[in-house]
Amino acid sequence: MLYKDLVELYEELESTSGKLEKTSILAQFLRRVPEEEIDIVVNFASGYIFPPYSELELGVATQLMIRAISKTTGFPQKEVEDLFAELGDLGMVAEKLTQRKKQASLFAKPLTVGDVYEGAMKIATASGEGSQERKLEQISRLLHFASPKEARYLVRTLLGELRVGVAEGIVRDAIAKAFLGDTGEAVDAVEYAYNILCDFGEVAKIAKREGIKGLRSVKIVVGRPVKVMLAEKAESIEEALKSLGGKVAIEFKYDGMRAQIHKKGDKVWVFTRRLENVTKQFPDLVELARSNLKCEECVVEGEVWAISREDGSPLPFQVLSQRIHRKYEIEKMVEEIPIQVNLFDVLYLDGRMTIDLPFRERRKILESIVNATEQFRLALQLITDDVEEAREFYTKALKLRQEGVMVKNLDAPYIFGRRVGGWLKVKPTLETLDLVIVGATWGTGKRAGWLGSFILACRDPDTGEFLECGMLGTGIKEKKSSPEDVTFEELTELLKPYIEQERGTEVRIKPKVVVSVDYQEIQRSPNYASGFALRFPRFIAIRFDKSPEEADTIERIRYLYELQRRGEKK
Length: 570
Prior knowledge:
Layout: H1 3-14, H2 19-31, H3 38-45, H4 62-73, H5 77-87, H6 90-100, H7 113-125, H8 131-144, H9 148-159, H10 168-179, H11 184-197, H12 200-216, E1 230-233, H13 237-244, E2 248-253, E3 257-264, E4 267-272, H14 283-292, E5 297-306, H15 317-324, H16 330-336, E6 339-349, E7 352-353, H17 359-369, E8 376-378, E9 381-384, H18 387-399, E10 404-409, E11 419-426, E12 433-442, E13 451-459, E14 466-472, H19 488-495, E15 499-503, E16 506-509, E17 514-518, E18 521-524, E19 532-535, E20 538-542, H20 554-565
Parallel strand pairs: 1-11, 6-8
Antiparallel strand pairs: 2-9, 2-10, 3-4, 3-5, 5-6, 6-7, 10-11, 12-13, 12-16, 12-17, 13-14, 15-16, 17-20, 18-19
């Protein structure tokens, strides 16, 4: 397929605002994509080149792209930077300069979708000495064959910011409509398969070839992460027990990282809830699982949290977060920040998915395959229908510095990727929000060279856009006085690769980094796209375990605002 055909789709999607209209446009397009390219095209239309769980990363920073545009078009790098400052979109910069470029591409062949994918693979696999120059060559080669409009979307795609307003729900519905029919059954089948495979491209290929039956036949693949089941929020222990009715299982909600642990023979993989492979960062967890999971093949879930070297007491998530993205001195971190693992579910055991079994049966299976040790154990659990007993358990969790409790329906199956009533979480009254940083300002004086005044945004689940809702400045430290502290310098270094645009001291940042914040109250505000503003937000932690798509939504903020108005803010 020619890349220009995909670009025409991008243009149409970008100029269309309605969710249903976007779905129809994408569905019509997918019907005419050759079967052998459907997986690549669907992922491209979703804004991805590789599936979300893939360890392949393009690693194309803004400055590298500026160099590539300069090299391909013949315009000085300074001119590219100035136009970027004016337009705020390197894709638009590439389009304008390609139209004006000083040397025309002689005998340029049309760019194909396959060309772009092949080039992206070469960019992602470039490593070691000289890798940046090899990436530059590949980007320049693709741009050389691109028309102005192709250059716009090619640059955006390689930077990971397609901006055509296609969220997961639109892709899901479009696949169903294109190949299965416009029915709820079709949508559910696509979602089911996607929650297991985590790859819309592969799901589309199965839908086209095998229909609903093929999608419903999809099974867990050990070594490949699945979308985890999520919990709804309950206002109190009383509400949780009343909602579920009868006896329930109550477990501590640990202040740690939710881990999906896969074991096949002696091979172990560890994934976060955002599908990231963190196996290398947790060799101690790998060894614990290898030694204490009595199965040939299994997938279990648990919470990993940091513990004190002195007395084994739980430490805040901020301490554990130092290990999640660590790429060097891993053994040192294992020594300095030991962990404990508390397992709470099993999804797969020796060739059989266990997700359709009631939770009480899954727990028994889990108990049978875990050789419990001090560091690798089952989550502490209370089964009760007594409110006072449940409240005491909740109080105990808080005294032990955990987040709260999970209240679970003993008869509920495991449902991938959804917030369902089978699990409820109860946390203290003032709950934090998980928001995305989308902007900042450069500091002055003693904070010169550091970013500050971070702009926070919540997620619009319908469009996939991020809506500004406040400015964060407090809770971040100038100097580190304890392991869990996060400094302005550390946050600046984390955000630098995601800077999209600078105008004076103001910086626009790709929505990649999620932070937890608390706040005094939520106010109505015309100054932010969300229509709301957090009053006095305070930084709590960087949430390395959460993707931007897992940030709190505008609906959540609106809900909290309404509770607050009734004097029930939680």
